[in-house]
Design goal:
The complex is a heterodimer of chains A (about 290) and B (about 180).
Chain A (H helix, E strand, L loop, with lengths): L1 E7 L7 E4 L1 E3 L2 E4 L2 E4 L4 H15 L5 E6 L5 H17 L3 E4 L6 H12 L6 E4 L1 H9 L8 E2 L3 H8 L11 H4 L6 H10 L6 E4 L4 E5 L2 E6 L13 H14 L4 H18 L8 H22 L1
Parallel strand pairs in A: 1-6, 1-7, 7-8, 8-9, 9-10
Antiparallel strand pairs in A: 2-6, 3-4, 4-5, 10-11, 11-12
Chain B lengths: L13 E5 L3 H13 L5 E3 L12 E5 L3 H10 L6 E4 L11 E4 L3 E6 L2 E6 L5 E6 L4 H9 L10 H4 L3 H21 L1
Antiparallel strand pairs in B: 1-3, 1-4, 2-3, 5-6, 6-7, 7-8
Classes of the chains: A alpha/beta (about 290), B alpha+beta (about 180).
C-alpha cells in the first residue's frame, strides 16, 4: 500500500484515512470532496493519475485540514505514531505537514519498526523536518528544488528561510557542489530528485540522470509542479518501477504535460494534471519504440 | 521495581526566544501555552544569552505566529533566534522576467504576477501548511488588494512569501507610477 500523508487548506476538514479517487479535477474520500489545488491535493491527484494509468489500486491517504496553525499536522503525526505498525505501508510519503522535529523522529522510529520498513519519501515541509532532525539518511527519497537543495547543503539551517545567501545564489552549475555538501553533512537520502531548469536524479551522491527536455520555463512559476513529480514517483514505485526509473519517468512526464498544454505562468496545476495521462502514454510509446 | 521513562517533550525545534529578564520569560510561556503552542523554559546557550538566564524553546517554523501572539499580548521579548547558524533571516530576492509576467523569488518561495494588471498569477515553492491556503486566498487577485502573507500566515514559508510579495508589489507600483 502507498500511504500519502499531508494537510489540505480547509480549516475544519477532519483527520481522514482511506483510499482516494480522482475524477474531473477533484479528489473524493469518504464522501468528501477536495479541490485539486497546489500542495498535497495536487500530489495525491498526480499519484491517482499514475495509479489509474498503471492499473493498480489507488493510493491511501491520511489527510487533515490545516491552514498553518499546526492542529491538523499534529493529528497526522499522532495518528502515524500510533498506527503505522498496523498499517504497514510499502511506501510512506510525507508532504505538507508542519515541521516538528521531535514528532517526525517518533514517526520515523515507528515506521522503522514495521515488519518491513516502508520506502520513506519526504517532500515540502516534511523534508524540512527530516533534514533539520538529522533523519535524512533514514529516508529513501527527497524531492527538493534548487533553493531546497541549498537548504540541504547548509549544515546549520533548520528551515529554508535561514539558508546562507551564497547557497541561495547557487545556479544549476553549482548543483554538484550542493550535492557533495548535502551528502558530506549527512543531509541527503539515498535518492535525490532535484527539480529545476535541469532535473537531476542523484543516487548515493552520484548524478545518474539529467532531464532537460522539453524545456518549459513557465513550470517553475506554477504552484504544484513539484508536488505532481513527488506524487507520480510514489505511485510508479507502487506499480513496481525502480525508484530511479520512477524519478526519470515522473520528471519527463511533468515537462511533457507542460508542453502539451503550452504552459504559461498563469497555468493552474489542475491543467497540468489533466495532461499527465497523455504525457505518460507518449513516454511509454517512445520507450517501447527504443526497446 | 521499574519506572516508566517519561516521554521527552517534542518542543526542541530549533528556535529560542531571548528575554531581558525572568519575569518576561515566564509571562511569555504562560501566553504561548494558553495559545496551545508547545514551548519550554530553558537556559539559553552562553552565546545567545542577553542578561537573562531563561529563554523559551519554540518550534522555529512558527516564529511569525509566535511573535504576532506575543506582540498582541504586549509581552516583551528581545528576539527569536535559531539554535544553530547565523540567525539571519533571509531577505534577498531574485527576479525572473517571463515577458508578460514577472516571478519574484525569496528563499524557497516564488510569486508570479501579470505585468499589466498586477494580478497574482501563481505562487509556487514552499512547504508549510499555510502555503496552500495562501495560494487559494491570493492567486487571481491583484497585488494591491490582497491581505499580505505576513498578516494571514503562521510560518517561516509565509514570511518568505511575504518578502517576495512586498518586492512584487514594489515592482508593480514602480511600473504603474
Amino acid at each position: 500500500m502507498l500511504l500519502i500523508c499531508g494537510t489540505i487548506p480547509i480549516a475544519n476538514f477532519p483527520l481522514t484515512m482511506g483510499a482516494v479517487a480522482f475524477a474531473g479535477d477533484e479528489l473524493f474520500i469518504n464522501e468528501q470532496k477536495i479541490p485539486c489545488t497546489q500542495g498535497t491535493a495536487a500530489l495525491v491527484s498526480a499519484a491517482c493519475v499514475v495509479a489509474d494509468y498503471c492499473q493498480i489500486a489507488p493510493p491511501h491517504v491520511l489527510l487533515a485540514g490545516d491552514i498553518g496553525n499546526g492542529q491538523g499536522s499534529r493529528a497526522i503525526y499522532d495518528y502515524l505514531k500510533k498506527n503505522i505498525g498496523r498499517l504497514s505501508p510499502n511506501i510512506l510519503l510525507m508532504h505538507y505537514i508542519l515541521p516538528v522535529m521531535g514528532l517526525m523522529k517518533k514517526v520515523v522510529a515507528a515506521a522503522e519498526k514495521c515488519a518491513e520498513k516502508p520506502v520513506l519519501i519526504a517532500d515540502a515541509s516534511s523534508m524540512y523536518a527530516a533534514k533539520a532532525a538529522g533523519l535524512a539518511p533514514r529516508f529513501d527519497i527527497f524531492t527538493p528544488d534548487l533553493s531546497e537543495m541549498a537548504f540541504l547543503a547548509d549544515p546549520d539551517a533548520v528551515h529554508p528561510a535561514y539558508i546562507s545567501r551564497h547557497l541561495f545564489n547557487s545556479e544549476i552549475l553549482q548543483v554538484p557542489e550542493l550535492i557533495a555538501a548535502a551528502c558530506q553533512n549527512k543531509n541527503a537520502p539515498r535518492l535525490l530528485i532535484i527539480k529545476g531548469a535541469v532535473d537531476h536524479i542523484v543516487e548515493d551522491g552520484r548524478v545518474i540522470a539529467t532531464i532537460r527536455e522539453p524545456d518549459i520555463p513557465a513550470l517553475e512559476a506554477i504552484g504544484g509542479t513539484g508536488d505532481t513529480i513527488s506524487g507520480m514517483i510514489s505511485a510508479l514505485i507502487d506499480a513496481g518501477v525502480t525508484a530511479s526509473e520512477a524519478a526519470i519517468t515522473a520528471t519527463k512526464a511533468n515537462r511533457l504535460a507542460g508542453q502539451i498544454i503550452s504552459a504559461k505562468p498563469a497555468t493552474k496545476i489542475r491543467e497540468i494534471i489533466a495532461a499527465l495521462p497523455m504525457a505518460l502514454k507518449n513516454i511509454l510509446k517512445k520507450e517501447k519504440k527504443n526497446d | 521495581m521499574f519506572f516508566s521513562k517519561k516521554e521527552k517533550s517534542s518542543v526542541a525545534d530549533g528556535g529560542l526566544i531571548i528575554f531581558a529578564n525572568v519575569e518576561d520569560a515566564i509571562r511569555a510561556e504562560k501566553i504561548l501555552r494558553a495559545g496551545s503552542f508547545e514551548t519550554r523554559l530553558v537556559a539559553p546557550p552562553p552565546a545567545l544569552r542577553r542578561g537573562c538566564d531563561l529563554a523559551l524553546e519554540i518550534n522555529l517554523t512558527e516564529k511569525p505566529v509566535i511573535e504576532k501572539t506575543l506582540l498582541e499580548k504586549k509581552s516583551h521579548f528581545l528576539e527569536v533566534l535559531p539554535l544553530r547558524g547565523s540567525g539571519e533571516l533571509f531577505n534577498v530576492v531574485k527576479v525572473k522576467d517571463f515577458g508578460d509576467a514577472v516571478m519574484v523569488k525569496a528563499a524557497n518561495m516564488k510569486l508570479t504576477f501579470d505585468k499589466k494588471t498586477g494580478v497574482i498569477l501563481n505562487i509556487s515553492g514552499g512547504g508549510c501548511p499555510d502555503i496552500p491556503y495562501l495560494h487559494i486566498s491570493m492567486v487571481d487577485k491583484k497585488l494591491s488588494e490582497v491581505i499580505s502573507p505576513k498578516e494571514q500566515g503562521y510560518t517561516l514559508c509565509a514570511l518568505m512569501l511575504d518578502v517576495a510579495y512586498r518586492e512584487a508589489l514594489h515592482l508593480w507600483q514602480s511600473e504603474v507610477a
